[in-house]
Structures are given as C-alpha cells and as structure tokens.
Amino acid sequence: MLDEFVWGKVCRVSPEAPVPVVEVQSESHYPGGAANVARNLKPFCQSVYIFGLIGRDFAGDCLARLLESEGILTGCLVRQKNLSTIVKTRIIALHQQIVRVDRENKAFSATDRTISKQVIKMLKQLLPSLDGIIFEDYGKGFLDQELKDQLCHMASRRGMIIAADPNSRNPLDWTGATVIKPNRSEVFDFVGVPSPPVNTFNPVEDRQLLRACEKLQARWKLPQLLITLGEQGMLLIQPGSPPYHIPAHSKEVFDVSGAGDTTIAMYTLALCANAAPKEAAEISNHAAGIVVGKLGTATLTIEELRRSFE
What is the pTM of this model? Predict the structure, then answer.
C-alpha cells in the first residue's frame, strides 16, 4: 500500500463544522504496509525482494518507483488491471495526525489462483539466494491459507527463517513459522477470547495473556512468539523458557505508524544473522524506539541503531 502524508498547519476552525482547517504546506509519499517492512530491511541487507499485489494506476506506479529508488527489487510485484492500489492518507498538523483517509478496493476478497501460481513460481526461483521470508499480513486478501502453506513449505524445507506479522481479521493457521508477532489484542482474538484490560505494568505477571500465548503456541507449534505491547514494550515467549520482557526503549513518541513493520523486519533480520531470540528482541525493540520518535512512516539507519545501544 502507499502511505501519503499531507503536512500543514491549522489556521482556524471551519465555519461549516467544528473541525480544524488545515492549510497544506507539503505532501509526501512512502511505501506502506508490507512495502514498509521491505524499506526497513534495505539499509541492513544486500537484497530485499517484495512480493505483493498492486493496481495498474498512479498509486501503483508511485509505489513501485519509490521502492526501486531505495534499491528494493520489485520484479515480484503483481499488477492487476481492475484493482486500485491501497492508499492511506494521513493529514498532519502541529506534529499530530488530524485524520486518516483510507482508499482501498473492498471488492477484492481472495487471491486469484493464477496469481498464486505466479507468486509460487517466482519464489521457487529465488529460494537458493534467500535467508528468510517475512509474511506481513494486513488482511487485504492477497494472502490466503493455500498460498501461505505452499510458500511456508518451500521455505521450511530449506531451513529458512519464516516470520509472520499476522492479522486477526485473516485467521490463518501459522504452523511452520519460526516466529509470529501479534500485538496483545490480536493474541486474544486468535484464541477467541475478548481482550481483557491491562491490570499490571509487568507483562510477565499478566496471567490471562500468558495463558492465551500458551494456547497459541500449542495450536501452531511455534518456536517463538513475540508480542508487541505498546508502551509496555515486548514479550518473548519460547517453549521451555520463562517469558522474557523487554521494556519499551522510546524516549519520545511522535508517530507509532509503521513501528510494527520495523519490529518484524529487525527481529527477522537478527535471526538470519544468527542472533539468539532474546538478542533479536532487544535489537528490534531498540529499532522500534527510534522510529516512533520520527514523524511519518519512518525507517532507521545502521548508525542510529548503533548509537541507541551506546
């Protein structure tokens, strides 16, 4: 999807309704959704391939150009004639998001099997050169169970790292993944339990969350489960080990959009570089702390990550 930012200043309250009037000063575009995960990886990787579905429209062209300008390989993007590329427009004034406008094609509900075959064929050719795969699921219809299972099976046979940022609106079976990264409410959604209010500042003492995590791990036989908890940081769950809590590392929070993309990107990258899961969690937590301190769909540099550890 394409992230569009409209930057401006509030000059007055509208006479038509009790809402601010934003005087536009500039506009900018960034790769969003799964494309933002690729963008977060690129400063740390020699090659990043992006798979996905976009329309043959202005937004699709803009998204492809942006990715190519950052050195991300777009040969595996599939373009579809009758599909509108998803665009999320955020209007920002006084360092705050005033409103977000989403444009997406609700008519698209399931991946065409010819597209699935195309994706599987492309991945098969690339497999020997890959270290890992990230499934970034925004629940928009491109990723279904059959496509996930086939890609996962191909990757696991080669012993690759398989990470997933799942979406509870698209309840896939994530058996075969090395790690999945839901947030707290998504964990409860996946096990079919209403999300209870947070009643402790220490996630290790959140018994309801830990029970839900146990159910999820047992269901999908997950070696690693990384839960993002906003201002509480992250919780790493591994079978046979006590839960590992990583407190949030952000000094200032300007914009949380895209922070989850940074987390899954850096966690997976660290695992591919032979980091232990706890090390990978610490690295991704530092990375997320950097990007939430920036406005817009932000990424980070190697130097920024090094400095945060100093």
Answer: 0.90
